[in-house]
Each structure stands twice: as structure tokens, then as C-alpha cells.
Amino acid sequence: MTPVLFRHPASLGHDTGAHPERAARIVAVERALEAESWCGFEPQEAPEATRDQLEAVHPAAHVERIRALAGSGGGSIDADTLVSRGSWDAALRAAGGAVAMVDALAAGAGRAAALHRPPGHHCETDRPMGFCLLNNVAIAARHARDAHGMSRVLVLDWDVHHGNGTAEIFAGTDEVLYCSIHEYPLYPGTGRPSETGHGAGEGHTVNLPVGAGSGDEAFVGLVERVVLPIARDVRPDLLLVSAGYDAHVDDPLASCAVTDAGFAAMAAATHRLADELGAPLGMVLEGGYDVDALARSVAATLRTWSAPTPAAPEDPPTAPVVEWATRRLAERWPSLR
Ligand SMILES: [Zn+2]
Q1: By three-state DSSP, how is residue 80 classified?
Q2: CB 3.0–4.6 Å: which of 14, 100, 155, 286 could bond 159 by disulfide?
Q3: pLDDT at residue 148 is higher than 90
Q4: Which of 8, 14, 121, 122 is catalytic?
């Protein structure tokens, strides 16, 4: 079955004015992908998420707050997080696209993508924040369990910011292993290694903070040498990437130095992992605020995913932060030893 990507023109109607998280991001991504025949993916319009799908993650009052604020013409939730009249439609399609992506993967698509805005990973159970109104990847992961019985999901979040929302939503469960590589310290201030989840979820939050200036060695090294071994121990039945591109060297909101080739290398690692585990692989767009770097890097991801399985690097990159994370996590995860 052909890889599928979900999109929707409603993404352009979430009007944030002069804001880094703007409609031009999606315009640039779609233009770049269309010029490459969508990198082998079949574009489809995202459906709206249903209330039940949203409320598997967010309380009804949270959902209603977003709908009502958009319906009344919009306003601001906090200094960063804006709602316009079109934001409800945009958010419904962004969540619905992530859900449809999971349905496509469950039906055998192998690879799928949900390319919408607003992004989602900062949105907590009951708290929209950080440009995010609904947590799209969390809604996708819950749908995977509820509709398809996939109860071991790995979420790899390579957005440069810690996905505090996804971490909070799944902190108490072992059904979702949340791995985040993020610049620290940086917004939103969470994501320390000591945050490991609680109760049944203890150990199933893996925070991999990196310092400002970190580039391909740190990001690709952490994926190859830490995330992949942990995934082999967990054996997830679904792999989801919270794919933000604001760790790019050209990004204005953070200070990391990942290149287009670095994103392609992380995509290649997830591609090999999915083949090795026989698990489907999807991505939900998060951040990325230099529109050209974003467009090129999303294309690099999808191009890598639709190509034949790449060979494993003989000697994956490493960095002190990779060695430190390996030592720190080896006690819990046998494949790291
Ligand atoms: Zn981000």
C-alpha cells in the first residue's frame, strides 16, 4: 500500500498574524513536496477528528473552550498561543489527520504523515500552550490503542523543544514510551532526565536533553545509539515521530545546529527500525520556523521513508551527551549494555 500523507487547507485558516507559527510554513512544505510528486506519498484531505477521539485525551471543557473561543472570533490563550475564527477547523483537521494517519498505518500503509498546523506537543491534558491547542500525536496514540488495539506505542519527539504535553499525558502509563531529544534549558523548561514518568509509566518517559549548539552528532547519535536500542527492548507495535524541525541550524527559535542531512539521517534510522520491528511508522508535524529549512527537511524525511531501506551506518555518530545517556539508561534497558 502506498504511503499516505494527510493535509488540509484549513491549516491555513488558523490566523496567528505576525507569529513564527504561521500559515507560510504549510505553504512552503506543500510547495516543496508537490515539486517532488509528494515524495512518493499519496496526499489526502484530513477528516475532522470526532469529539470522542479528542476526548480520549482532553476533557470536554478543554475542547469546548477552543471551539467557543474560535466561534466568538478568537483571542489569546497565553502570550504565544493564539486562536482565530479559523482555528477550530484547523485544530479539528490537524487532530483528524493524525487519527487518519494511524488508520492508514493500521490498514497497511507502512509509512504515513500528518502535515498540519497548529502543532500539538506542548498541549497538556487540560492546558493549551506553546502554539498548541490539541495534542495531535497524543490523540493519534490513543486512537491507535482504542481503535486498533496497538497498546505499545513509541513516540520519538525530535522537535527542539521538550513535548511537555505529550510527556504529561502519558506519564502514568506504560502503553506509550515517550522519547524526547530537546535543547535544554529552553522553553517550556521541562524535560530533565530525572522526569521518568510515574506509577505504571515509571521509566517510560525518556528525556534526552542536549545543550545549545548541538548538531547532527548529538541528535543522530542519540537516535541511533539510545532510542533504537530502547525501542528493541520495548518492541512497539507503532512508531510515531513528533517531527519538529526547529533544531535546524537555520531556525530562529532555538540554538541547535541540525542540518538537512541530519534530519535525513534520523529519518533513515526510524525507517530501519520500523523494518526491523515490522511496525508501521508515521510522523506528525510539530515545529520548525525557518520555512525554507522546514520545507527541505520535511521533504528529506518523506523522501527517505519512501526510498528502499537504507543501510545502517557502520559507526553511528557519537558525542559526550550520547555516552552519558547510554550510561544513565543502561540499567533499565538491556539493549544499551
Ligand atoms: Zn518546537
Answers
A1: coil
A2: 286
A3: yes
A4: 122
